Amino acid sequence: MTRFSTLELDANGKLVESNVRIIKQSDMMKCPHFILVANHYRADGSCRCNDRTHTEMRKWGYRWKNGAWR
Fold first, then answer.
1. Long-range contact list for 65-68, CB < 8 A, 24+ apart?
2. Backbone torsion region of residue 38, taken as left when φ is above 0, otherwise alpha when ψ lies between -120 and 50, otherwise beta
3. 69 near 54, Cβ under 8 Å?
4. pLDDT tens digit at each of 70 positions of the chain
């Protein structure tokens, strides 16, 4: 399992974890690009390489071709 989260300091200066998301490593290994960004994975563990609306992929340099980001 890989754990993604946001770490912030609370009013007392204590480190607090929020926005926790745990994704199976086996699900991440199925991604053709092995992207290590939590929002790249759906709740069922599948990656969004075949989701044309996942426009972050374009920002990362991928191009939409033949039904997937490449």
1. 68/32
2. alpha
3. yes
4. 999 999 999 999 999 999 999 999 999 999 999 999 999 999 999 999 999 999 999 999 999 999 999 9
CA–CA–CA angle 70, 26, 67 (5° rounding) = 25
Among 69, 20, 21, CA closest to 45: 21
> CA 32, CA 57: separation in Å to the nearest integer?
13
Q: Kindly report the pTM of this predicted structure.
A: 0.85
Tokens 């075949």, located at residue: 50
